[in-house]
Design brief:
Elements: E1 2-10, E2 29-33, H1 34-37, E3 53-58, E4 64-68, E5 72-81, H2 111-114, H3 121-135, H4 152-161
Antiparallel strand pairs: 1-2, 1-5, 2-3, 3-4
């Protein structure tokens, strides 16, 4: 997909101050998508003298992020191909004000990176969903124990009392 944008040349060195910033060296060429500049306050020609922060790609380092518009000069319009974004599962942040249980996710990792399901999990989940839809949550078939484990009624009772205490890997 072709996108319209603008190219800028860095006039000054800029060392990033935040994680979302990018470093600039004099002479670096930066590409900024037109959609980044078009805001409620945008007027035709504003791209030639940017005043605030811009978000773009440093063509030398291939870093993407924010940089001060006052550190660059306008080079001209450009058309470029944007790569398709990689699908990345991202957990939804908790609703502000709602209580949530703390997670022990190491900094820099997402919960989805830590969770891996066995290959057969989707089949099992689909069977459980089908059973719930057909028979309801009270169906004894949902509580059928595997061999060498507590009986169905014992398992159901244990799940109702304290679900976290039940060892389902028995």
């Amino acid at each position: 997909m072709c996108t319209e944008g603008f190219q800028y040349r860095a006039l000054f060195e800029y060392k990033k101050e935040r994680d979302e910033d990018i470093n600039l060296l004099p002479g670096d060429v930066l590409t900024v998508g037109k959609s980044v500049l078009v805001t409620a306050n945008y007027q035709e020609g504003d791209e030639k003298n940017p005043k605030g922060w811009l978000n773009g790609v440093n063509e030398r380092s291939k870093d993407k992020g924010d940089f001060p518009g006052t550190y660059v000069e306008f080079v001209g319009p450009v058309r470029f191909v944007t790569p398709s974004p990689k699908p990345r599962p991202r957990p939804v942040p908790p609703t502000p004000g709602a209580s949530s249980a703390p997670t022990n996710v190491p900094p820099g990792q997402e919960l989805t990176e830590l969770l891996t399901l066995p290959d057969q999990a989707p089949q099992i989940v689909m069977k459980l969903i089908e059973a719930l839809e057909k028979k309801g949550a009270e169906s004894e078939i949902l509580y059928r124990p595997p061999p060498d484990s507590p009986s169905g009624s014992e398992l159901k009772e244990a799940l109702e009392i304290d679900m976290a205490a039940v060892d389902i890997d028995q």
